[in-house]
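Hi R.,

Quick one: here's the ACP S-malonyltransferase sequence you asked about.
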Amino acid sequence: MLALLCTGQGAQHPRMFNLTKGLPEAQPIFEAAAPLLGADPRAFVERPDADLHANRTGQILCCTAALAAWKIIERLKLSRMIVAGYSIGDLAAWGCAGRLDPAAILRLAATRAEAMDAASGEGYALAGIRGLTLDLVTKLAERHGCHLAIRNGPDSAVTGGLRTALKALCTEAAASGAQRAIVLPVHTPSHTPLLAAASRSFAQALAQEKLRRPPPGAPRLIQGIDGTTVFDPATGLDKLARQISETIDWAACLQACREFGATSTLELGPGHSLATMARDALPGTRVHALEDFRSIEGVTAWIER
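And here's the predicted structure, written out as C-alpha cells:
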C-alpha cells in the first residue's frame, strides 16, 4: 500500500519541476497555475529574480508540484493508497484525493496565502525545535509568548510568534538540550491563533467551491490537522480552514499511514523533508521523495516493485 505525502512550503527551488515538466497529463495543471503566478510555473522557478519563498508564490508552487506529481501516480491505477499533506500540502492532498478540481486547488492556494498575509502583522516567524519533549517545547513557547504550531514527532516541533521572542525561545531551548533550535526563513506565524482571521476568511472561500465525488480507487484522504480520515466533507473543509490557525499534528498523520498499512511512502515534493520524517516514524517502510528519482520510469518501477 502506497502512502503519498504532499509537502509544505520551504523547499521550492529552480529544478522542482524537472521530473514532471514534460508529463502530458500535468499540462493542464501548469496552465492553470500560470495566470496566478504571471508566468508558466516551469519557467517562473528558473528566473533568477523569482522570489520562490514569498507566501503566495510558495503556496501556489507547492500545490502545483504535488498535483503534477500525482499525475504520475494516478495513471498506475493502484488499488490502495492514502494521502496526507503538511500545511499547504493539506490542501494539495484534497486535489490528489479527487475531492476538488486541480484548478480550484490552485485558486484556493492563492486565496489562502492572501488571507494569511492579510491577517499576519510584521515581525512574525516560525522556529523549528528538535530534541526536546513536546511538553517542554510548549512550556517554553508559552513563557516567551509564542505558540506550538506543528507536532512533527515526540521530540520535534515548530513554534510560531514574534521573531524576537522566537530567538529568545531558541536560545533557551538550546540551553535546555535541544539538538536544533532555529528561526525559520518565513514571515507568517502559520498554525497559531495569530491567524484566526485567515481561518475565517478561508472557510468562506471553501464554502463557495463545489466538491467532487472521489473517483474509484482514489486515495484515502487524511486530515492534516489531526490525522483523521475525511468521511464527512463539511467537517473536512472546516478542519482545512481551521488548520491555518490551530496546531497541526503531522505525527498523527504519519501514524495514520502506518495504521492503514503503508508499505511504501512517497513524498511528492518539492524537497525531502517529509520523507526524512517518515523514515523515522515508519520503520520497515520503503520511503523516497519524488526528487530522489531521475526519471518517471524510475518512479513507476519503484512503486510497482
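The mean pLDDT is 96.

Cheers,
M.
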